[in-house]
Structure formats: structure tokens, C-alpha cells
Description:
By secondary structure, the protein is of the alpha+beta class. It has helices at 2-45, 54-58, 154-157, 171-175, 183-196, and strands at 70-72, 92-95, 107-111, 135-138, 141-144, 146-150, 166-170, 202-209, 219-226, 233-239, 245-247, 254-256.
Amino acid sequence: xxxKERHRVNxxxxxxxxxxxxxWLHQAQAKTYLMGSLGQQIENKIPKTKYKDTSKLAKLNWQxxxxxxxxxxxxxxxxxxxxxxxxxxxxxQKLGTLDTxxxxxxxxxxxxISMMPKKAREDLYINPVGFRxxxxxxxxxxxxxxxxxxxxGFQLTGENNxxxxxxxxxxxxxxxxxxxxxxxxxxxxxxxxxxxxxxxxVRYRVTPIYRGNELVPRGIQxxxxxxxxxxxxxxxxxxxxxxxxxxNYDDGTSSIDTGSIKNG
Length: 264
């Protein structure tokens, strides 16, 4: 009789335990669903940052003899979304694919000093589309009109002879020797920041701006934002021009601009 009573008690306790377990699992699932739903609602409330309409930049024309080859975009503030600034993948680089005309597209990276090359750059041998070079006078010296220009500078990631990272830019646009208004100016700002803050990360984006089906970009948009600080933050557009010369952006041919003061 006592054994039967104990058996009944054990069965009852087992049923109660199963019931409690069922209730607990149901609540856990409900909590997971609720948190997931709430998280999605919060995420949806975060403003989605839209990129600058590059077609507006493509319509801009540089005024001959202008001393300023660089203009600020969006009040010089880089336009990255919260997702863009995530450090989940640490440092990385992603180059855009070539379009049907063979033109490179936007290049993106999360930069860190660990990505910077430790070896000297080898000579460039790949010619980007529209690279129809010629000798010119620049800053009073013999030079070349065009540079094979890296979207993400070699000093930042070590990327070199890669068609997806090379565009045709003028000498003045890529790395002018007589002015600080060039693409290299902003690359150097990023590199200097990374060397000074060796554990820091910088979100970086470089976008060549084309007009229609032209092979040579009208300019280059550069954006950079240091992660966790406001020390480094810029958004600029560098016109792809060479003072004293006319560029045919359709195919890269060029001529002396007799209507302006020749450079050199």
C-alpha cells in the first residue's frame, strides 16, 4: 500500500515537473519573439543614411583658373550609416566591380594600421580606362598629365596593380606638388591618424564620379570617419582637372587650354 502511494506521488510530481517545464519553455519562446520584435522595431527607427547623390557631383564644372580644386560635400561630414561603422569584421577592404565600360566603382574599407604595407610599392604597369598620357609642364617642371591613381591609396592597404582600384586622374588631382588640394592630401590625413593612433580604425570610402558613359571620372569623392572619435571626419570632392589643359573625359585625350593661364 505504501509503495502504491509513493508511486502515485512520483507520478504526480513528474506530471507537475513536465507542466512547469512546458510553461517555462513557452515563456522563453515568447520572450525571444518579443525581444526580437522589439529589436527589429528599434533598428527600424534608426535613420537610414542615404549616400550623396553622385549625379549631382557629376554635373558640377570646375572653373578654369580657380585656385580651389576641392569642395566640401555635406558640410564636410562623411555619410556612413551605423552598419557602415560596425567593427564586427575588424579591418577589411572591398573594391567595387568594373562596369561594362571597364570603369572602377566605389572602393570601401575599414582601415587599421595592420593593413598598411611594409614593403615598397612596385611600379604600376596596368593602364586604367582613358589613360592616354602625355608630357606636360606642371609646377614649372616636366611631368605627365595623368597618373594611374589608386582609389584606396597604396600606403593605406598595399593594394597596387588592380584594375578595380585604378582610375585615370590628372597629376594635379592625384598628388599635386605645388598645392595641398589633391587626393593625396586626404590620404595622408588618414595615414597620419592611423600611425598616431595605432589601435584606431577609420571607415573610408572613395568614389570615382563619372558623367554618363565617359571613361575618365570628373572627380573623386573621399569620405573618412574615425571610429569612436570625431577627430577624423571629412567628405570632399576633388575635381579631376589639370590647370592649363582641357580634358576630353569621353576617351582621355587632351589639349592645351588656350583660354586659361598655362601651368608652368
